[in-house]
Specification:
The structure is a single chain. This protein is an alpha/beta fold and about 625 residues long. The chain has 5 domains: about 100 residues; about 100 residues, Beta-Lactamase; about 60 residues; about 160 residues, Histidine kinase-like ATPase, C-terminal domain (Heat Shock Protein 90, 2-Layer Sandwich); about 120 residues, Rossmann fold. The protein is built from 18 helices and 17 strands. The protein has a 5-stranded antiparallel sheet with strand order 2-1-5-4-3. Strand 1 and strand 2 form a beta hairpin. Helix 3 runs antiparallel to helix 4, helix 8 crosses helix 15 and helix 10 packs across helix 11.
Length: about 625
């Protein structure tokens, strides 16, 4: 642009000189040329060329040279002012252009920064939505889905790509609730009023596979422009409901267990008197065959009653146990041989014993009884025959499994799985099978205590029972027993022995129940022992101060504030040579006295005379 101005100045100077010497027509043509150059150059100096032209015309018309020169000088001054103004405008344009360029660059940088910030905000918001533990669903005011996070995919089964742009009501609202949902939605859009916004709701929702699940729902509405955006926060309550149901079931079983345990304890005392007296009658010759037969029948009935109370105590987890290190595979293999003979030819038994199954600390006799119970139930569920499969394996129940089963502690377990191909059970029956006296068998064909005994025994042993059943397919029960932290496992059965009598040793019998105390004193006397009796721990301590005693035989649960354990500790502290045998119908009365009194023996109620004789003799000979 500056170069053009310089050229125009040169051209104008040449014209100014040439018009003084050139002929009139040549000077005129030159002036027109300068005007065209100014016009075509876009410099806005056409007026200068016209003034120049007027000066030349004046000369041709006879004006004096002085007048023409004045005209030319005026044109030159105007041209100079014009050029100066143009140059200033040009510089201003350049400066403005530079400022505009700088402003444009600044604006572009701000746009980039804000765009990046917006993108980061959107990514952060998306990350929050994606990492949410609940399902997050966004819907526009037409009812179509705008957002659907990964947890929504997990809960309902539809992917994000499948649902975006589709009406929400046609996907997760059950058919029975859609009309009510759509009416409430329309009412809010029309009036702006809603009873559910900002509230926590508990309702049913539909999954992609057709299942209906219980969910907790909270909805918010945000105004955007002239419309609304709705955000739904949904929590699947399936696991929570299952855990709550398990907790209620556990509480119910605990309440039933407390009731049955207390009743069984009282029955044990009554049965102890009956069985003890019948044992004494049986051993007395009467020469009356009918009386002897009646005695045997009554004794058998009392023993069966004792077995019922034992099952009740097993369910209540209060039966006396004698846990010992047990080889699970060895025990299952042994019980398998017994089942072959007892279940019949129609039942095919398969044992699948895992390698290196961990040892467990359990009462082997009770475990054998539990497995026999399960096998018997499996046989009854296969009236036309079928397969019974017993599997052993090691299992680790992790935190996730424990979170779904409130009574389970995470850790290593030895598992015994008993499966059949029988009729199976409904979910309602499965939920009640461990309740005492509940049975689906015909009257007279079951007490309803078999599975409750298994349940109580496994729980009392620190284990867990899991049941799975399908009608027409069969049932699988899994018993989980905690892994024992022991190096060697030994399980031996007690050989049968003849009646073990006393050798004139002195036994102090402490029992608060008068009837049971009389029976115990008479039994010990007939076994050959010298017997002292006391109705309370305080009376027993007074007798010990006056007479030497070889064995203290005491009930554990007694009134007066002093238990059998406390009595045993006091006796051992004063007379450490005295042997201690405690008796109870409750399992939480352990033979080690809670760890404070070693080498104690426990005899569970109700007991037979032979059990009493063996336990007292073993304590003396130890």
């Amino acid at each position: 642009m500056n170069d053009s101005v310089d050229r125009l100045r040169e051209q104008y100077a040449e014209a100014f000189e040439s018009h003084l010497t050139a002929p009139g027509e040549a000077a005129l043509s030159h002036a027109y040329e300068i005007g065209r150059t100014a016009l075509n150059g876009g410099l806005g100096v056409l007026d200068v060329a016209i003034m120049h032209h007027d000066a030349l015309l004046g000369l041709m018309n006879g004006e004096s040279l002085a007048v023409a020169r004045a005209r030319i000088e005026k044109a030159a001054e105007f041209f100079t002012e014009l050029l100066s103004t143009f140059e200033m405008s040009l510089r201003g344009y350049k400066e403005n252009t530079e400022r505009l360029v700088a402003m444009n660059e600044t604006l572009e940088q701000q746009v980039r920064e804000r765009t990046n910030g917006l993108r980061e905000s959107e990514e952060a918001a998306r990350g929050i939505i994606e990492s949410a533990l609940d399902a997050v669903i966004q819907m526009d005011q037409t009812g179509k889905i705008m957002e659907w996070n990964s947890q929504a995919e997990a809960v309902f089964g539809w992917s994000r790509e499948e649902v975006i742009g589709r009406p929400l009501s046609s996907l997760i609202i059950p058919a029975a609730d859609r009309a009510r949902h759509e009416a409430g939605f329309a009412r809010f859009l029309a009036t702006g009023r809603s009873r559910i916004l900002g509230e926590r709701l508990f309702l049913d929702a539909l999954c992609s596979d057709g299942r209906e699940i219980k969910v907790e729902l909270a909805i918010t509405a945000l105004r955007r422009g002239s419309g609304y955006v709705f955000n739904g926060f949904i929590r699947d309550l399936t696991k929570q409901i299952a855990i709550e149901a398990q907790l209620r079931q556990a509480q119910k079983m605990e309440a039933i267990g407390s009731l049955t345990g207390g009743m069984a304890h009282d029955f044990n005392n009554l049965l102890g008197i009956i069985i003890g007296n019948l044992d004494l009658l049986r051993d007395r010759p009467t020469h009356d065959l009918e009386a002897e037969e009646l005695t045997r029948d009554a004794l058998d009935a009392a023993v069966r009653g004792a077995d019922l109370t034992r099952r009740l105590l097993a369910f209540a987890r209060r039966q006396p146990l004698q846990p010992e290190p047990t080889d699970v595979n060895k025990l299952v293999a042994g019980i398998g041989k017994l089942l072959d003979r007892t279940l019949g030819e129609q039942i095919s038994i398969t044992l699948k014993l895992g390698d290196g199954v961990w040892p467990v600390l359990v009462d082997p006799a009770q475990l054998e009884s539990s497995l026999t119970n399960l096998a018997t139930n499996a046989r009854d569920a296969m009236p036309s025959g079928g397969d019974l499969i017993i599997v052993t394996a090691n299992r680790n129940l992790d935190d996730d499994y424990a979170s779904q089963h409130a009574e389970v502690s995470p850790g290593d377990y030895a598992m015994i799985e008993v499966s059949d191909t029988g009729t199976g059970m409904s979910a309602e029956v499965v939920s009640r099978i461990f309740e005492p006296f509940y049975t689906t068998k015909e009257p007279g064909k079951g007490t309803g205590l078999g599975l409750s005994m298994v349940f109580g025994f496994i729980k009392q042993s620190g284990g867990h029972v899991n049941v799975y059943s399908e009608i027409g397919v069969g049932t699988t029960l899994r018993l989980y027993l905690p892994r024992a932290d022991i190096g060697a496992v030994a399980s031996a059965s007690m050989p049968a022995q003849s009646l073990m009598r006393g050798g004139r040793e002195t036994v102090l019998a402490v029992e608060d129940n008068p009837g049971l105390r009389r029976v115990v004193v008479r039994q010990l006397s007939e076994l050959g022992y010298r017997v002292l009796e006391a109705e309370s721990p305080l009376a027993a301590l007074a007798l010990l101060e006056m007479a030497p005693v070889d064995v203290l035989f005491s009930d554990i649960v007694m009134p007066g504030g002093i238990s059998g354990y406390e009595l045993a500790r006091a006796v051992l502290a004063r007379w450490p040579a005295i042997k201690i045998v405690l008796t109870s119908g409750f399992a939480d009365n352990r033979p080690d006295g809670g760890g404070d009194s070693p080498n104690l023996r426990l005899l569970g109620k109700p007991y037979r005379r032979d059990d009493l004789a063996r336990t007292i003799r073993e304590a003396i000979d130890e």
